[in-house]
Each structure stands twice: as C-alpha cells, then as structure tokens.
Amino acid sequence: MVILAQALATGLVFGSLYALLSSGVALQAGVMKIINITHGHVMAFAMYLTWELHRRYAIDPYLSVAVTVPVSFGLGSAIYILFLHTARTRDPLNLVIITLGLTAILESAFLIAYSADLHTLRVASLDRPIVLGPVIVSVAQVFALGLSLLGVAAMYAFLHLTYFGRAIRAAAENEYAARLMGVDTSRVRAISFGLASATAGLVGTLLMPMFHVTPVVGWEFLLWAFVAVVIGGLGSMTGALVGGLLVGLAQSVTGGFFTGHVSAVLLFGLMIAVLLWHPEGLLGERAVR
Amino acid sequence: VTATVPAFAWRWVIFLVVAVALPAVFSSRYATTLLVTLAFGVYLGLSWNLLAGLVGEHSLGHGAFVGIGAYTSTLLLVHLAIPPWLGMLGGGILSAVLAVGIGYVTFRSGVTGPYFLMLTVAVSQILLAVTEALDVVGGPRGLTVPFRGDAPWLMQFREPRAYYYLILGLIVVVLVTTEALKRGRSGFAYTALRLDERAAEASGIDVLRYKLLAFGLSGFLAALGGTFYAQYYQYLSAPTLFGLSLSILAMVYPIVGGIHATFGPVVGGIVLFPAAELLKRHAGDIPGLDVLLYGTVLVSVMLLAPGGLAGVAGGFRRARLAAPPSAPAVTETPRRHITP
Q: What's this model's pTM, rounded to 2 decimal places?
C-alpha cells in the first residue's frame, strides 16, 4: 500500500512533465502534421543549459527558466524558419527526416561538448524531503508537478482564450481555410514550433534538479511524449494532459512492482492498439467524415 | 556504349567488378573489416529501401527485423545446433511474418507517414524490452556466439574477406529482388500506388497485397542480415540490435543516395562511409563526429536534393537528354495528405 502510494506520487510528478512535453508534440503535430523528432533533444539542450548556468554562475534552476524557456522558444522557431519552412509543402516524411537529421546533429554536439557521462544537478534545499502521510517527495518534485501543470494550463489558456491561439487552432484544423481567413499560417507555424519547444525547455529545467542528463536522454522522453499524445488523442491539449499523466502513472506503478521492461511493453502495446483501433485517442471523439 | 545494352546493365557490370575487386585493393585485415562494415550498412539500407523505395513508407524500426534474425539463428545454433545457414531462414520467416502482421494492421487502418514511422519505433522498443527482460535469450548480458574457427558450415571464418564476399552475395540478392519487383506488372503496381493510392486501387491493383509483399521481403532480408551480424560480430546485445541507432543507420544510406534508385543505398554508403572514416581519422577520433556528419548530410540532402544523390544525377541526365523538344519529365509528386 505504501509502495503504491509512493509510486502514484512519483508517477504524478513524471506524468505532469510528460504531459507538458506532450502538449508541445501535439501542437507541432497539429500545425504541421509531423512529429518533430528534435523535441526531446530541445529538452536535453535546456537541461545542459540549466546545468551550465548553475555550475558557472550558481543560478538557481528555477531562475534559469527565464533563460532556458526563451532560448528554447528561439531554437524551435529557428528550426522551423531555417529548415522546415522551405520544405513545408513536401511529403511530411521529408520534414520528419530533416528533424531526425537535426536530432543527430544536436546529439553529437552534446556528446562532443559533455561526453556520454551522466550529468546531475543537486541542490540541497531542493532535495529536502517533504513527508505527506505515507508519501515522501522532494521539494524539486513538488515544484516540477506544480509548474508543469501550470505550464499545461497556460498553454491551454493561450490556445483557447487569445486571438493568436485561435489562429493556431484554426490553422491546425484547416490550413487552407485559415489562410483564406487572413491567418498568416507561416507565422503561426513558426510561433507554434517556438511555443512547443518552450514547453520542452521548461520540462528540461524542471527535470534537471531531480533527474540526470545524457546526450540520448531526449529519445526516451520523446518516445514517452509521443505515446502519451497518441493515447490521449492527437492534437488535443486535454488529451496530452491525460495521456501524459497516464504514461507517468503506468510507468511508476508497474515499475514499483515489476521491472521497467513491463511498463515499456504495456505502454507501447497500448499505443499501438490505440493507433490502430481508435486513432482519435482514448479521449478523442470519433472522426466525423 | 552500344544501343543494345540497356543502361542498367552497365551499372551492374561496374558495381560487380568494383565490389569484387575492392578487397584486392584494400587488402589489409583492418581495411577489409572496414569494407565489411560498409557492405553491412549498404545491405541494411537496401533491405530497408524495399519498403521505402517501392511503397513510400519509412520504417524507423528496421533493427527489429535485424534483431529477430540475429537472435533466432543464434538461439537455434546454441540450443539445437542448427547451422546458421538454416537458422537464417527461420529468422527470416519470423521477421517476414512480423512485418506482414504489422503491415496488415497499419496499412489497413490508414496509419501512414510519420505515424507509421513512430509505430515501427514502438515495435522495436517492445522487442528491446522483451529481449532484455527474458533470461532465456541472454537478457541484459546479451548472447555470445561460440566461435569454432574456420567452419564454413557454421558460417564462421577466420578471414574477414570471406565475410565480405558473403555479405556481397546477400547484397546481390536484395539488388536482384528490388529490380525484379520494379519490373513488369509489380513495377507498374508500385509506381501507381505511390503516385495515387486510391486511383491504383480503383484500377484493380491489390494495393495492400503489394505493400505487404514489399514489407515482408524487407523484413525477411533484414533478418538474413541479422544472422550475418551474429556470425560476424559473434556477440548480440539487445540495445545495439533493437535500439534506435541501427534503425537510423538503415535509413541514412538510402535517403542520402536516393530511395527511388535501385543503387541509391550503394551510392549513399560509398559516399558517406569513407567520409565519416576520414573525418574520424583526421579529427582525432572524437566520438560523435560521424553522427554529426550523417546528421548534417541528411539535413542538407533533404533540403537541397530530396531525391538523394541519385536523384541529382538523374536530374543532370534528364536535363542533358531533354534538349530542344523537351519531353515533360515524369517526376513523382509526393502523396498529398491534405487536399484543400
């Protein structure tokens, strides 16, 4: 029982981080109909940046959000403007290959700059345990949970309450019609890629004080975010939230009792099943044709 | 060049002469192992390209089939003493069944493009997790293939040169398979289903059957490569075989060389592999440099010449041939996913 409660708590923390990362995947899949493979490595970039800022200037990980989030935004927009914009009318697979190539470039850059070693950032005040009944969590985990849920909420609010958010949703639904209505869809895509990468940046910074970074850490997180997006329903922010939480909880609960392999088989299997038999996702409505 | 000899025949002659003569030029043991590595990469690319070049779907889980081939023939060898020459057929059939199974459910439910790509990643990740969890197949320690010295019936040789000619034989098998599928009725079927799937279906082409044929063969041949891998390296580890890097390697040569040319993956390998080796040699063996090169080339090719290097060559040739009365060159337009 105690194990279960502890697993649920850890699962909730990682689940909320997956949810935030997935909201970026969903946004990019919405406006471009592609999976941006670089997404996980943008997160890793933010992790290295957080680590570097802390080591050189002793900047608190949460203050470095002010740097990592805008820098990630710029990185995402730059990826769109420099590499994807000219190729936007081609087969989506071409674009995915471009993001795969960029991922390889980023990964080798990490490897050359930081070697394959594990880098961790530990701050005593953030490692302090908080006892909540049967559950013990660290301060960093509480921050990660709160701020990532706040991030998802902010993304949702931006897309639904602001004029530009509505333009993004319009462009995602029907690019051509949105253009006819006067939406600058190129600008929408550039900013959507920026926003999505900003979520990856925030996830990276929140993750750094409680996890570790390696050049390949982005792959695993990208895969889980993709699984979450497919399970929750592509292109929907609520879907990303529910999918992300589900992935995090399933991982830690099965991990608490079995090995990590069980959760991999379970979640990837669930994802394949959803993709094949209910492609709108568990929450999505049946597509009306 | 006489008019009676078709152009493709010259490519074959040049390829075979150069490929057979290469070990005589690079004869040291070390150079030969490099040739084997190059040839294995080319073989992977060619088997991957059966699906990509003919059907247009990109798999990022090709390692799954290589892994199944490697593990199946090795387990059959270690536990039942079945020689790899037979075991490779077992792995091949298993892989083909998996490929046809994945293809049947995905192609029917309309999972294509980026989603097909990510789904194949998921399949190989499941196999990775299962292999690591099961001690029967070596678990996280991996599997070692017992080496018996020169034992041709066990597909084991002391000389890397023997392995080179073995993988070259396999390369010829995929090349012939690719050419055979591109010719005649099936060739028209693949061109038609790539250009417009619904129109092909309406013209009476059994689209699903042709897609499954290409995917099944791709899986089968990849598994044969897996057995080769097992016998050559004599050590199997789940992350190397089922992990992402092998699957990425399988798609780099074909994409750089050009997926619509039969010899595209060969061209990609011949250009990229020596470049990466030279870079590593002259830049002081910094780990990650080859990946940096592959990534840069991948992005540049996709942006500047999406048809790959073979596509560039084809463009030159078309431009030269189509002098005054320029016939409209038949180029493939990408499948439209959104029709406004």
A: 0.88
Mean pLDDT of B2-24: 79
Nearest to A245 by CA among A12, A36, A55: A12
| Optimal mutation site among A79, A86, A100, A103, interface B, most CBs of chain B within 10 A | A100
> What value of ipTM does the predicted structure carry?
0.86
Cβ of B105 under 8 Å from any chain A Cβ? yes
- Contact across the interface for A276 and B340, Cβ inside 8 Å: no
Do A226 and B118 count as a contact with CB atoms less than 8 A apart? Answer: yes
Strand partners, A131: A136
Question: Given an 8 Å threshold on Cβ–Cβ distance, is A112 in contact with B287?
Answer: yes
Q: Check CB contact of B129 with chain A, cutoff 8 Å.
A: yes
Give B250's Cβ-side CA count (13 Å radius). Answer: 33
d(CA B304, CA A168): 29
Q: Encoding tokens for residue B97?
A: 């069944």
B164 within 8 A of B25, measured Cβ to Cβ:
no
Encode B30-44 in three state secondary structure: HHHHHHHHHHHHHHH
Alpha helices for B183-288 (secondary structure H): 184-195, 197-202, 207-233, 238-242, 244-257, 264-282
B297 vs A contacts (CB less than 8 Å): 101
CA distance B92 to chain A (A): 23
**How far is the alpha carbon of A262 from chain B, nearest alpha carbon, in Å?**
8
Cα–Cα dist A10/A15, whole Å: 8
CA nearest neighbour of B71 among B5, B134, B152: B134
Chain A CB contacts of B195 below 8 Å: none
Q: What is the pLDDT of residues B133-192, one digit of tens each?
A: 888 888 888 888 888 877 888 888 888 888 999 999 999 999 999 999 998 889 898 998
Whether B224 and B274 have beta carbons less than 8 Å apart is answered as no
Conformation bin of residue B184: beta by default, left when phi > 0, alpha when psi is -120 to 50: left
Helical axes A39-57 vs A2-32, angle rounded to 10° = 120
| Model pLDDT for residues B297-335, shown as the tens digit of each residue | 999 999 988 888 887 777 666 665 554 444 444 455 545
Q: What is the pLDDT of residue B336?
A: 47
